[in-house]
Amino acid sequence: MNDPHRPTTFGPQGADGAEPGLGDIAAVSVEGLIDAVESAGTKTERRRRWALPLRIAVSLLMLGVLWWKFPEIKWADLIPAWDLNTILWLLAATATTFLGIVLSAVRWQSVLRALGLRERLRVLVPLYFAGQFVSNVLPTTIGGDVLRVSRLSKANGQPETTFASVALERLTGWLVLPLITFFGLAINPGLRELDRATFLALAVAIVTLVALVVVLLAANHPRLGGRFASTEGWRRFVDAIHQSITELRRQPLAALSILVAGLVYQVVLCIAALMVAAALGFSWLGLTALLAFYPAVLILQVLPIGIAGLGVRESAFVLFLVPLGVPAEKAVALGLVLYVINVVASLFGAPAFAVGGQKTAVTA
């Protein structure tokens, strides 16, 4: 689909100060991506220094609003009661989160294979962990998806297809989140009677599903996504997505396997959240409640209005779980503990991030 000898120059990088999405990847050269992620003190980073403190301030503000809204919350109650049972549940949740990252790499591998690139998991798993480390641990406005695109494309010489694989992996992953919400609400009728919580979960699921369907249809349409067909500049990356979606349409079994991989990954995240709930003392919550509401939390927490979803995630948990009888402080603690566990799991990507600049052998 792509010529490995094409130049790898993108357009200039956006300067909105927000954590870049997939569209921003197409605006930076492959070499520029590496420099942006792995270099400190650049002019671009200096211009964006205000972004990180501002997002931290917004997260603290949202947590403060929760404290003001629920004055009965005591910060000491946010810390789990440390006993053997709690420690075992938290270790299990961390291991499950670790497994979820590996499953994400498996999903990415499925997308790459469908697009004609056969990459080994021993290459993709460290790359995915390195990307998680960048997104969740480092104080940077450059996302982990950028790192994955830049490093794998340097190794395989296919920047357009690599970019398209990351875009499609993310899109298909988000596609299953609304479906999980619908399933959870369908099998547990009681969850459909929680007024504001039910309405918000359905609204988030429907809006997300409609938006993703529109994006996929537009990218696949020859007069929309296809109109950017080009061999130069950022347009070739948009065209790569268009061509990749067309390729997946020709391989329905491959597309189905990618969706199944995304479904398994999201269910694993729900199980990890259930384990944390057990550690916090409300395992009675049940898996169906998390299937119905946790996908909405995952969608809302990526809104670029805080740092790593802090404040947004905890507020969403309060809105969804308090009507189910979960104390507000326990709902906030669930969000905070899940964040800490995600950071701990992401730390395994530090070695891969540190040494990953070296060219990795990739089998054809």
Automatic annotation (TrEMBL):
It is a multi-pass membrane protein. The chain crosses the membrane at residues 50-68, 88-108, 171-191, 197-219, 253-285, 291-312, 332-354. It is found in: Cell membrane. The keyword Transmembrane helix applies. InterPro entries: L-PG_synthase/AglD. Keywords: Cell membrane, Membrane, Transmembrane, Transmembrane helix. One of its GO terms (cellular component) is plasma membrane. It holds the Pfam family LPG_synthase_TM. Its main location: membrane. NCBIfam families: flippase-like domain. This is Unannotated protein. It comes from freshwater metagenome.
